[in-house]
Input
Amino acid sequence: MTTTRRREERGSSELRSLDASSKAASDVESGASLIFVVGVLAFIGAVVTLLTAPAQVMQGENAHAVTSALHGLVAGLFMIASTISLYQAYRLYEGKIAAVGEVQIATAVTAALSALTIIFGNWIYAALRTSGPPRGYYASMSPVVQKIFFEFKEHMALFTLPLAVVAAYIAYYYGRELLDNPRLRILLGVIVALVFFYFFVAFGLGAAITKLKPPA
Amino acid sequence: MPSIEIKRGEIRFQRATGPAAAAFTSAMLGLLALTIVNLGTEISQPFRDAVFGIGKLWIPGAQGIGPYSGKETIMLVVWLGSWAGLHIVLRKKDVDLVRWGIVFLLGLGLATTFIWPPTIDLILR
Output
Protein backbone atom coordinates (compact mmCIF):
# COMPACT_ATOMS: atom_id res chain seq x y z
CA MET A 1 0.00 0.00 0.00
CA THR A 2 1.45 3.39 -0.95
CA THR A 3 2.04 6.16 1.58
CA THR A 4 -0.54 8.39 -0.13
CA ARG A 5 -3.18 5.68 0.04
CA ARG A 6 -2.38 5.05 3.72
CA ARG A 7 -2.75 8.75 4.42
CA GLU A 8 -6.10 8.82 2.57
CA GLU A 9 -7.41 5.85 4.54
CA ARG A 10 -6.28 7.35 7.83
CA GLY A 11 -7.92 10.64 6.92
CA SER A 12 -11.23 8.99 5.97
CA SER A 13 -11.23 6.91 9.17
CA GLU A 14 -10.60 10.07 11.21
CA LEU A 15 -13.50 11.71 9.40
CA ARG A 16 -15.70 8.70 10.16
CA SER A 17 -14.79 8.74 13.84
CA LEU A 18 -15.43 12.48 13.94
CA ASP A 19 -18.77 11.81 12.26
CA ALA A 20 -19.57 9.10 14.83
CA SER A 21 -18.62 11.34 17.75
CA SER A 22 -20.66 14.25 16.39
CA LYS A 23 -23.64 11.89 16.03
CA ALA A 24 -23.13 10.78 19.64
CA ALA A 25 -22.93 14.42 20.72
CA SER A 26 -26.16 15.23 18.87
CA ASP A 27 -27.80 12.22 20.58
CA VAL A 28 -26.83 13.68 23.97
CA GLU A 29 -28.00 17.14 22.90
CA SER A 30 -31.37 15.87 21.71
CA GLY A 31 -31.72 13.91 24.96
CA ALA A 32 -30.89 17.00 27.00
CA SER A 33 -33.34 19.13 25.01
CA LEU A 34 -36.05 16.52 25.60
CA ILE A 35 -35.42 16.69 29.35
CA PHE A 36 -35.62 20.48 29.17
CA VAL A 37 -38.95 20.38 27.31
CA VAL A 38 -40.45 17.86 29.74
CA GLY A 39 -39.17 19.92 32.66
CA VAL A 40 -40.77 23.10 31.29
CA LEU A 41 -44.08 21.31 30.68
CA ALA A 42 -44.04 19.89 34.20
CA PHE A 43 -43.27 23.33 35.64
CA ILE A 44 -46.15 24.92 33.70
CA GLY A 45 -48.49 22.17 34.85
CA ALA A 46 -47.42 22.53 38.47
CA VAL A 47 -47.82 26.34 38.42
CA VAL A 48 -51.27 26.15 36.84
CA THR A 49 -52.33 23.48 39.33
CA LEU A 50 -51.06 25.40 42.35
CA LEU A 51 -52.65 28.66 41.22
CA THR A 52 -56.05 27.24 40.34
CA ALA A 53 -56.52 24.21 42.63
CA PRO A 54 -59.09 24.69 45.41
CA ALA A 55 -56.55 24.04 48.16
CA GLN A 56 -59.05 24.73 50.93
CA VAL A 57 -60.93 21.58 49.92
CA MET A 58 -57.80 19.51 50.64
CA GLN A 59 -57.87 20.33 54.32
CA GLY A 60 -60.11 19.01 57.03
CA GLU A 61 -62.05 15.75 56.75
CA ASN A 62 -60.43 14.26 53.68
CA ALA A 63 -56.83 13.88 54.83
CA HIS A 64 -55.99 11.72 51.83
CA ALA A 65 -56.92 14.29 49.22
CA VAL A 66 -53.31 15.49 48.83
CA THR A 67 -51.98 11.95 48.40
CA SER A 68 -54.72 11.26 45.91
CA ALA A 69 -53.85 14.45 44.02
CA LEU A 70 -50.17 13.49 43.90
CA HIS A 71 -51.06 10.03 42.60
CA GLY A 72 -53.22 11.60 39.91
CA LEU A 73 -50.56 14.19 39.02
CA VAL A 74 -47.79 11.63 38.63
CA ALA A 75 -50.14 9.34 36.67
CA GLY A 76 -50.86 12.28 34.37
CA LEU A 77 -47.15 12.81 33.77
CA PHE A 78 -46.83 9.06 33.19
CA MET A 79 -49.50 9.42 30.50
CA ILE A 80 -47.44 12.10 28.73
CA ALA A 81 -44.19 10.16 28.98
CA SER A 82 -45.71 6.85 27.89
CA THR A 83 -47.41 8.51 24.92
CA ILE A 84 -44.09 10.01 23.80
CA SER A 85 -42.48 6.60 24.27
CA LEU A 86 -45.25 4.97 22.26
CA TYR A 87 -44.61 7.28 19.33
CA GLN A 88 -40.91 6.51 19.54
CA ALA A 89 -41.77 2.80 19.69
CA TYR A 90 -43.60 3.18 16.40
CA ARG A 91 -40.61 4.95 14.86
CA LEU A 92 -38.32 2.24 16.24
CA TYR A 93 -40.54 -0.43 14.70
CA GLU A 94 -40.42 1.36 11.34
CA GLY A 95 -36.66 1.81 11.63
CA LYS A 96 -37.04 5.59 11.31
CA ILE A 97 -35.53 6.63 14.62
CA ALA A 98 -32.14 8.30 14.38
CA ALA A 99 -31.58 9.80 17.84
CA VAL A 100 -31.31 6.91 20.26
CA GLY A 101 -30.75 9.43 23.05
CA GLU A 102 -34.40 10.47 22.83
CA VAL A 103 -35.53 6.87 23.27
CA GLN A 104 -33.21 6.47 26.25
CA ILE A 105 -34.50 9.58 27.99
CA ALA A 106 -38.17 8.80 27.31
CA THR A 107 -37.92 5.19 28.55
CA ALA A 108 -36.00 6.24 31.65
CA VAL A 109 -38.55 8.93 32.50
CA THR A 110 -41.40 6.47 31.88
CA ALA A 111 -39.81 3.92 34.22
CA ALA A 112 -39.31 6.53 36.96
CA LEU A 113 -42.89 7.78 36.66
CA SER A 114 -44.22 4.22 36.74
CA ALA A 115 -42.41 3.66 40.04
CA LEU A 116 -43.65 6.96 41.51
CA THR A 117 -47.24 6.30 40.43
CA ILE A 118 -47.18 2.90 42.12
CA ILE A 119 -45.65 4.36 45.31
CA PHE A 120 -48.31 7.07 45.58
CA GLY A 121 -50.94 4.51 44.63
CA ASN A 122 -49.84 2.31 47.54
CA TRP A 123 -50.14 5.33 49.80
CA ILE A 124 -53.69 6.16 48.73
CA TYR A 125 -54.72 2.51 48.59
CA ALA A 126 -54.56 2.32 52.40
CA ALA A 127 -57.32 4.97 52.54
CA LEU A 128 -59.40 3.26 49.87
CA ARG A 129 -59.39 -0.02 51.79
CA THR A 130 -61.46 1.57 54.55
CA SER A 131 -65.21 1.65 54.33
CA GLY A 132 -66.95 4.64 52.89
CA PRO A 133 -66.78 6.32 49.48
CA PRO A 134 -65.70 5.62 46.87
CA ARG A 135 -64.77 1.97 47.54
CA GLY A 136 -67.55 1.30 49.97
CA TYR A 137 -70.03 2.77 47.48
CA TYR A 138 -68.89 0.45 44.72
CA ALA A 139 -68.77 -2.57 46.99
CA SER A 140 -72.33 -1.91 48.02
CA MET A 141 -73.42 -1.59 44.38
CA SER A 142 -71.62 -4.53 42.80
CA PRO A 143 -68.73 -6.63 44.12
CA VAL A 144 -67.84 -7.63 40.55
CA VAL A 145 -67.43 -3.96 39.53
CA GLN A 146 -65.41 -3.32 42.70
CA LYS A 147 -63.12 -6.22 41.82
CA ILE A 148 -62.45 -4.84 38.35
CA PHE A 149 -62.24 -1.10 39.12
CA PHE A 150 -60.04 -1.55 42.17
CA GLU A 151 -58.31 -4.91 42.32
CA PHE A 152 -57.73 -5.48 38.59
CA LYS A 153 -56.63 -1.87 38.19
CA GLU A 154 -54.03 -2.11 40.95
CA HIS A 155 -52.54 -5.27 39.44
CA MET A 156 -52.46 -3.84 35.92
CA ALA A 157 -50.54 -0.85 37.26
CA LEU A 158 -47.89 -3.20 38.63
CA PHE A 159 -47.39 -4.67 35.15
CA THR A 160 -45.98 -1.35 33.91
CA LEU A 161 -43.01 -1.22 36.27
CA PRO A 162 -40.88 -4.21 35.21
CA LEU A 163 -41.67 -3.63 31.54
CA ALA A 164 -40.77 0.07 31.69
CA VAL A 165 -37.51 -0.63 33.52
CA VAL A 166 -36.59 -3.37 31.02
CA ALA A 167 -37.28 -1.00 28.10
CA ALA A 168 -35.00 1.65 29.62
CA TYR A 169 -32.31 -0.94 30.30
CA ILE A 170 -32.33 -2.21 26.71
CA ALA A 171 -32.26 1.35 25.33
CA TYR A 172 -29.26 2.31 27.47
CA TYR A 173 -27.37 -1.00 27.30
CA TYR A 174 -27.45 -1.31 23.52
CA GLY A 175 -27.59 2.38 22.61
CA ARG A 176 -26.78 3.01 18.96
CA GLU A 177 -26.53 -0.74 18.29
CA LEU A 178 -30.34 -0.72 18.30
CA LEU A 179 -30.19 0.97 14.90
CA ASP A 180 -28.26 -2.00 13.46
CA ASN A 181 -30.29 -4.79 15.06
CA PRO A 182 -33.85 -4.87 13.66
CA ARG A 183 -35.07 -7.67 15.94
CA LEU A 184 -33.88 -5.94 19.10
CA ARG A 185 -35.28 -2.64 17.86
CA ILE A 186 -38.69 -4.14 17.15
CA LEU A 187 -38.69 -5.98 20.47
CA LEU A 188 -38.01 -2.73 22.33
CA GLY A 189 -40.86 -1.11 20.42
CA VAL A 190 -43.19 -3.95 21.43
CA ILE A 191 -42.19 -3.67 25.11
CA VAL A 192 -42.81 0.09 25.11
CA ALA A 193 -46.20 -0.46 23.46
CA LEU A 194 -47.06 -2.99 26.18
CA VAL A 195 -46.14 -0.44 28.86
CA PHE A 196 -48.59 1.97 27.25
CA PHE A 197 -51.30 -0.71 27.06
CA TYR A 198 -51.09 -1.69 30.74
CA PHE A 199 -50.82 1.95 31.80
CA PHE A 200 -53.89 2.82 29.70
CA VAL A 201 -55.98 0.10 31.36
CA ALA A 202 -54.95 1.16 34.88
CA PHE A 203 -55.30 4.88 34.12
CA GLY A 204 -58.74 4.46 32.56
CA LEU A 205 -60.05 2.48 35.53
CA GLY A 206 -58.43 4.95 37.92
CA ALA A 207 -60.02 7.91 36.17
CA ALA A 208 -63.40 6.17 36.42
CA ILE A 209 -62.90 5.82 40.18
CA THR A 210 -62.52 9.61 40.53
CA LYS A 211 -65.94 10.07 38.97
CA LEU A 212 -67.65 7.99 41.63
CA LYS A 213 -70.06 9.82 43.84
CA PRO A 214 -71.45 8.41 47.06
CA PRO A 215 -75.20 8.35 47.34
CA ALA A 216 -76.74 11.53 48.81
CA MET B 1 -20.84 -14.37 21.73
CA PRO B 2 -20.46 -10.65 21.17
CA SER B 3 -18.98 -10.01 17.78
CA ILE B 4 -16.55 -7.52 16.44
CA GLU B 5 -17.30 -6.08 13.05
CA ILE B 6 -14.40 -4.45 11.26
CA LYS B 7 -15.13 -2.03 8.49
CA ARG B 8 -12.67 0.18 6.71
CA GLY B 9 -11.16 2.50 9.29
CA GLU B 10 -13.74 1.62 11.94
CA ILE B 11 -14.12 -1.09 14.57
CA ARG B 12 -17.64 -1.82 15.88
CA PHE B 13 -18.33 -3.94 18.93
CA GLN B 14 -21.78 -5.57 18.91
CA ARG B 15 -23.07 -6.70 22.25
CA ALA B 16 -24.64 -10.12 22.71
CA THR B 17 -28.42 -10.34 22.80
CA GLY B 18 -28.39 -12.48 25.94
CA PRO B 19 -28.69 -9.56 28.39
CA ALA B 20 -31.80 -8.28 26.56
CA ALA B 21 -33.39 -11.74 26.76
CA ALA B 22 -32.48 -11.96 30.45
CA ALA B 23 -34.13 -8.60 31.10
CA PHE B 24 -37.49 -9.19 29.45
CA THR B 25 -37.69 -12.84 30.54
CA SER B 26 -37.18 -11.82 34.16
CA ALA B 27 -39.99 -9.24 33.81
CA MET B 28 -42.27 -12.00 32.52
CA LEU B 29 -41.31 -14.28 35.42
CA GLY B 30 -41.98 -11.53 37.96
CA LEU B 31 -45.43 -10.86 36.51
CA LEU B 32 -46.27 -14.57 36.37
CA ALA B 33 -45.26 -14.81 40.03
CA LEU B 34 -47.61 -11.90 40.81
CA THR B 35 -50.45 -13.71 39.03
CA ILE B 36 -49.82 -17.02 40.79
CA VAL B 37 -49.59 -15.36 44.21
CA ASN B 38 -52.80 -13.42 43.51
CA LEU B 39 -54.57 -16.67 42.65
CA GLY B 40 -53.19 -18.27 45.79
CA THR B 41 -54.48 -15.47 48.02
CA GLU B 42 -57.95 -15.91 46.50
CA ILE B 43 -57.92 -19.65 47.11
CA SER B 44 -56.33 -19.99 50.53
CA GLN B 45 -56.72 -17.79 53.61
CA PRO B 46 -53.50 -19.07 55.31
CA PHE B 47 -51.56 -18.34 52.12
CA ARG B 48 -53.15 -14.89 52.01
CA ASP B 49 -52.03 -14.27 55.61
CA ALA B 50 -48.50 -15.46 54.79
CA VAL B 51 -48.29 -13.13 51.79
CA PHE B 52 -49.56 -10.27 53.95
CA GLY B 53 -46.83 -11.10 56.47
CA ILE B 54 -44.17 -10.80 53.77
CA GLY B 55 -45.41 -7.33 52.81
CA LYS B 56 -45.43 -6.15 56.42
CA LEU B 57 -41.71 -6.95 56.72
CA TRP B 58 -40.63 -3.86 54.80
CA ILE B 59 -43.41 -1.78 53.19
CA PRO B 60 -44.43 1.23 55.31
CA GLY B 61 -48.17 1.26 55.87
CA ALA B 62 -48.52 -2.36 54.75
CA GLN B 63 -51.13 -2.86 57.46
CA GLY B 64 -53.45 -0.60 55.51
CA ILE B 65 -52.58 -2.07 52.12
CA GLY B 66 -53.20 -5.71 53.02
CA PRO B 67 -51.92 -8.71 51.03
CA TYR B 68 -51.23 -6.40 48.06
CA SER B 69 -48.00 -5.42 49.83
CA GLY B 70 -46.86 -9.05 49.85
CA LYS B 71 -47.83 -9.54 46.21
CA GLU B 72 -45.70 -6.53 45.23
CA THR B 73 -42.80 -7.82 47.30
CA ILE B 74 -42.88 -11.29 45.75
CA MET B 75 -43.12 -9.79 42.25
CA LEU B 76 -40.08 -7.58 42.91
CA VAL B 77 -38.03 -10.41 44.41
CA VAL B 78 -38.78 -12.87 41.59
CA TRP B 79 -38.23 -10.22 38.90
CA LEU B 80 -34.95 -8.81 40.20
CA GLY B 81 -33.62 -12.16 41.43
CA SER B 82 -34.29 -13.93 38.14
CA TRP B 83 -32.82 -10.96 36.24
CA ALA B 84 -29.57 -11.23 38.17
CA GLY B 85 -29.38 -14.99 37.59
CA LEU B 86 -30.32 -14.90 33.92
CA HIS B 87 -27.92 -12.04 33.25
CA ILE B 88 -25.04 -14.02 34.69
CA VAL B 89 -25.95 -17.02 32.53
CA LEU B 90 -26.71 -15.15 29.31
CA ARG B 91 -24.46 -12.09 29.36
CA LYS B 92 -22.05 -13.38 26.74
CA LYS B 93 -24.49 -15.41 24.67
CA ASP B 94 -26.33 -14.55 21.49
CA VAL B 95 -29.87 -15.90 21.71
CA ASP B 96 -32.67 -16.17 19.17
CA LEU B 97 -34.70 -13.09 20.07
CA VAL B 98 -37.69 -14.30 18.05
CA ARG B 99 -38.11 -17.46 20.13
CA TRP B 100 -37.44 -15.75 23.42
CA GLY B 101 -39.78 -12.93 22.40
CA ILE B 102 -42.58 -15.36 21.63
CA VAL B 103 -42.16 -17.03 25.02
CA PHE B 104 -42.16 -13.58 26.65
CA LEU B 105 -45.39 -12.55 24.94
CA LEU B 106 -47.10 -15.85 25.73
CA GLY B 107 -46.06 -15.58 29.38
CA LEU B 108 -47.35 -12.03 29.56
CA GLY B 109 -50.63 -13.11 27.96
CA LEU B 110 -51.05 -15.87 30.54
CA ALA B 111 -50.29 -13.48 33.39
CA THR B 112 -52.83 -10.95 32.11
CA THR B 113 -55.50 -13.60 31.54
CA PHE B 114 -55.19 -15.19 34.96
CA ILE B 115 -55.19 -11.91 36.84
CA TRP B 116 -58.49 -10.86 35.21
CA PRO B 117 -61.16 -11.29 37.92
CA PRO B 118 -63.74 -13.22 35.85
CA THR B 119 -61.03 -15.81 35.06
CA ILE B 120 -60.22 -16.10 38.75
CA ASP B 121 -63.92 -16.55 39.53
CA LEU B 122 -64.10 -19.29 36.88
CA ILE B 123 -61.17 -21.12 38.48
CA LEU B 124 -62.59 -20.75 41.97
CA ARG B 125 -65.90 -22.24 40.86
Q: What stands out?
A: Chain B has six helices and two strands. Chain B touches chain A through 39 residues (CB under 8 Å).
